[in-house]
Amino acid sequence: MRVLVTGGNGYIGSHTSLALIEAGHDVVIADSFINSKRTVLPRLEAIAGRSIPLHDIDLTDAAATDRLFADGNFDAVIHFAGLKAVGESVQKPIEYYRNNIDSTLSVVEAMKKHGVGKFVFSSSATVYGEKAPVPYREDFEYLQSSNPYGQTKVMIERILTDTAAAASAATTDDETTPEWRIALLRYFNPVGSHPSGTIGEDPQGIPNNLMPYLSQVAVGRRDHLTIFGNDYPTPDGTCQRDYIHVMDLAAGHVAALNHLDKQTDPVRAYNLGTGNGTSVLELVAAFSQAVGHDLPYQFGARRAGDIAANWADPTRANTELGWQATHTIEQMCEDTWRWQSANPTGFPDA
Ligand code: NAD
Ligand code: UDP
């Protein structure tokens, strides 16, 4: 298939673009570089051994997005583009709603107009909110999130569901209205890097997430890790999360894309996680092992909004998509460290 990968210059999109190419798909990337460097693409091309077309476009610009589709001849879209920092979204809700919702509307409008119905969306475990029982299952109905970032994911899932439902119910519509097949992929905690160590996660500013923070401590860019709370009702008192290797996540996108033709529901949600919870202390121990020495940490106060534990029930993706996460926590740490130690300050600026 000829696949438009929005946000394909970013962390998960870049790894998925490679997996798509490896699986025989044609990839076209659209990215505004709002949260990624231009030096990612040459590295991607070096790994892929071929050039990869990339359009510098802000997808909130509906006219530009329409022009992209007019010339694109796409069979499917994987939509990664979006802003993703929870804390920043609380400070800048308008920017988050504008960017994430508008870009999705532009893309979906252009898909409808140009008759492209296959869509894979980057959703998140955050849509389960704070009240869902663990492990999270896709059939949990009451989706909500406590922060604007998460709320954009809930809203986009709704927009996509309504769009597909309207098309299914329509008796007359313009000729191009596609038959929608939409996969909502709810990621748990993506970590790790391509085994080459030449691409990886490169957060701008101080990392919010555990793994990039820890790897910056390991490489000497930060003094120590502060562990947010050690009095949670978990085996060691620190929070548990379902960390998933980005290569497994990338494979999950290929599986979801290839399955769209067989997907009976117009819209289907899938958890992409391992099904295992790992505590902060366990991750610190595994990362220390990968680096070869202990990493400094201190216990601090709980972070507002954190829940004690969550992990996926990945049964639906396992059975319907034939996909399963295979990488261990040790591999996640080793691959993250290979990338971070070879690229202490991330991708070069130019
Ligand atoms: P990322 O920031 O590395 O990649 C996103 C890419 O989208 C960036 O290259 C950015 O420049 C681009 N972009 C943003 N807004 C754009 C716009 N309006 N037009 C064009 N390009 C735009 O993030 P990531 O970690 O690769 O995440 C990809 C997707 O997965 C996001 O939608 C994110 O919300 C979702 N997600 C990420 C995580 C995670 O922990 N990384 C977890 C759950 C879901
Ligand atoms: N965490 C931490 N110190 C940090 C960053 C994160 O102790 O500097 C903890 C955080 O409280 C949570 C876990 O690590 O329990 C994973 O946090 P992350 O932000 O990576 O993922 P999320 O909370 O969004 O699942």
Walk me through the structure.
The protein is an alpha/beta fold and 350 residues long. It has eleven helices and 13 strands. Helix 1 (11-22) runs parallel beside helix 2 (40-48) and helix 3 (62-72) packs parallel to helix 5. The protein starts with a strand and ends in an 8-residue tail after the last helix. Bound molecules: nicotinamide-adenine-dinucleotide and uridine-5'-diphosphate (UDP). Residues 189, 208-210, 213, 225-228, 239, 241, 280, 303, 306 line the site of uridine-5'-diphosphate.
Taking all residues together, what is the mean pLDDT?
96
Bound heterogens, unique:
nicotinamide-adenine-dinucleotide, uridine-5'-diphosphate
Distance between the termini: 32 Å
User: Low-confidence parts lasting 5 or more residues at pLDDT below 50?
Assistant: none
Shape, per Cα inertia axes: globular
Radius of gyration: 20 Å
Structural class: alpha/beta
Please sum up the structure shown:
The chain has 350 residues and is an alpha/beta fold. The protein has helices spanning 11-22, 40-48, 62-72, 86-91, 93-114, 148-169, 210-218, 246-259, 280-291, 315-320, 329-342; strands spanning 2-6, 26-31, 54-56, 76-79, 118-124, 181-187, 189-191, 225-228, 240-241, 243-245, 267-272, 278-279, 297-300.
Blueprint of the fold:
Layout: E1 2-6, H1 11-22, E2 26-31, H2 40-48, E3 54-56, H3 62-72, E4 76-79, H4 86-91, H5 93-114, E5 118-124, H6 148-169, E6 181-187, E7 189-191, H7 210-218, E8 225-228, E9 240-241, E10 243-245, H8 246-259, E11 267-272, E12 278-279, H9 280-291, E13 297-300, H10 315-320, H11 329-342
Parallel strand pairs: 1-2, 1-4, 2-3, 4-5, 5-6, 6-11, 7-10, 8-13
Antiparallel strand pairs: 9-12
Helix pairs in contact: 1-2, 1-8, 3-5, 5-6, 7-9, 7-11, 9-11
This protein binds nicotinamide-adenine-dinucleotide and uridine-5'-diphosphate.
